[in-house]
Amino acid sequence: MIRRLLVADRGEIARRVFATCRLVGIETVAVYSDADADAPHVTEADYAVRLSGGSAPANTYLRGDLILAAAKRAGANAIHPGNGPLSEDPEFAAEVAAAGMIWVGAPAKTLGTLHSKVHTKAIVAEAGVPVLATATDPTEVTLFPVLIKPAGGSGGQGMRVVRDPVTLAEAVASTRQETGDDVFCEPYLENVRHIEVPIIADTHGAVVPFGERECSVQRRYQKIIEETPSPAVDPALREQLCRAAILAVRAVGYVGVGAVEFLLDDHGDFWFIELTPSLQVEHAVTECVSGYDLVRLQLLVSEGGTLPMPGPPPIRGHAIEVRICAEDPAYAWLPASGTLHRFKVPDVAGSFRPLPQPGLRLDSGVVDGSVVGAHHDSMLAKLVAWAPTRQEAARMLASALTRTELHGVVANRDLLVRVLRHGAFRAGDVDTGFLDRHPEVFAPLLSSVDAVRISCLAAALAGAAARRASAPVLRSLPSGWRNVPSGSQTAVYDGPAGPVEVGYRMNRHGELSGWWVRAVDPEELDLAGLGQAPTLDDHPPTVVVHADGSRVDLDVNGIRLTLKVHRVGEVSYVDSPEGSVALRELSRFPLPAPEAAEGSLIAPLPGAVRRVLVVPGQRVRAGELLLTLEAMKLEHPVHAPSAGVVASLPVHPGAEVDTGELLAVLDPE
Question: What is the percent of the chain where pLDDT is above 90?
C-alpha cells in the first residue's frame, strides 16, 4: 500500500496528483528547484524537499539520484514520475523498484522496450496493428516527403519534415545534434488527424480503453487543443481504434495508464505512432466524459489492485481542453517569461479532479504572482470545458478564455479563442496542418480599431482617476476638472501596433466632451506637438458612466460596456468583453537609451546557449545558423541577418542569457 508518495515533477501535474492523494488519504512529498521554492506545488504538499542542483531541470528534476535521495529522506514509500522524461526512463523505474519503493508507472522492462520507437513499431506490427514503413538508414529513403524522428525522443522534439533529397543529410544531422539520439524516417502524411486512445492496464491482465481523443491542432508537433470524442470517429471506427490499442498494449506487456497514438486519414485508415507511457496532459478531457479519476486508477494499479470497470465506460457529452502557454504565436511561438501579475478565469466549476456535472475545469501550475522562467515547458495551465455537445463546449471555452484576466506574461490565449470560434474547427474540419492553413487565427483577439481605441481611453481615464484618488488635496474633484476652459488631458501608450496618444476633454461638470486616439511616430515622443487635439474627431459619442482606478463604465453611442483596468507599474492591462490589451505608458520626454553597435545580435528571449556553430573571424552567409538558444524545452535558432564576418562572440555553450543580452557582433561585408 502507498503510504507517502513523492511526485518527481513540478507544476500542474504535481498539483493534480496531490489532489487525488488528499482524497484517498495518501501523504504527499514535493521536490523543488531553487527557482520553484515558492511554487504552488511546493506549498500544497505535506512535505517538500529541495533538490540541490540549482534551477536547471537537468540538474534537479531530471536527476534520478537526487529524486531517490529526496524520497528516502522524506520517508516516501512510492514515487510518481509525473508526465515528464522520468516517466519514460527505464533505468529510473528500475532504481525505484530496487530501492524497495512502489513505482507508479509502467514497468521498467516495458519502458526499455518503448524507449526504442523502431523496436516498438516492429512488435506492434507483428501483433497486427498497422504501422508506417520505417527506414533506420536515411540514405535508403527514396520517396518524399519524409518525417525524421529521434529514435527515443518524445514531445515532438527534433522532428523535421524533409521534402527533397537535397536537404535530407542536413536535417538528419540537425536532429541528431539536437537530441543526441539516433534517428529514423517514416513517410510524412499530409492532412491527417492525430488520434490517441487512452488506456489503463492492470497486473491481472485487464486492459480498458477510454474511447479516443483528438489532438490534431498542434504547433511544432506539440498539442495545444485536445478533445473527446473526435468529430471524425464514429462508433465502428472507435471500436477498431480501441481494438488496435489493446493489441499494442498486450504486445509490449504494458501496465498502468498510458495512451496509444495513431495517425488517421480521411478514408478511415490509421497507423500506430507510439505508446506514451504516462498520465498525459490531456487526461482531463477523458476524466470529464468518463467520470473516472485516472490518477486514482493509476495508484490502484500500482498497488496491484484490479480495475473496477468491466469494459470501456460510456462517453458522456463532449470535452475540449486548451493549453494556455507563455508564448507569442505571432512571433514564431517565441517563449515568454516574467511575473504573472494576475491569472483569473471566470466561472470555474472545479480543479484537478473529475467534475460532478458539465462546466469548466482549470488545472493550473501557476497563481497570481508566479514567476514564469525559461527553464521549463511553457504551459501555464489547461482549461477544460465539458458540455452535452461539442458546439456548447467550444462556445463555453472560448467565452471563458476571452474573459480571462491574464496579466504580465504574453500567452497564446487569443489564438486559442480564434481557433475555437473558427468555422472550420466548429465543423470538425481539423488536422495536423490546421494552423498552417488558417493564418487568420494568429490575429489578436482585440483587433477592431474601435475596440482598441476604447481600451486606450479606459486606460487613460482609470489612470487619471487613480491619481486623483491618491492626491493629497482636493481629491473629491472630478478627474481632469478645470474651472476655466483649458487644454486636453493626454497620455501616451505603447500599444499593440506601436505608440498611441490618447486625449480627452472634460467640461466644467466633469463630463467627457470629446476624445481621440491617434498613432504617434516614435520620433515625436519628445517633441512639443503632442497634446493638441486632431482636427478630425471621428470617435462615437461617449459618456463616462463611472471611472475609478480599476473599472471604467462607458456609454458608447448608446451601448454601455464595462472595462476592467489593472495597472502594474507603467503597464495598464485592460480587459473588455471583446478581449484584452496591455498598454505601457510612455514618458513624454524619455531618456536616451544606449545604442547597440552596428551588427549586434541580441537574445530575443532568456535561455541557455545550446550550440555555437561559428568562431570569431569566420565569414558567414546571410541566413546562416550562428547559434541556438534553448528555452522552455525548445530550441530557437539565431541566424545571420546578412553576410559578414563574426567580429565578436561573447557567449559559449551552456551560458545563461537574458532578453536583450549580446550574443554576437557581425561586421557586414
Answer: 72
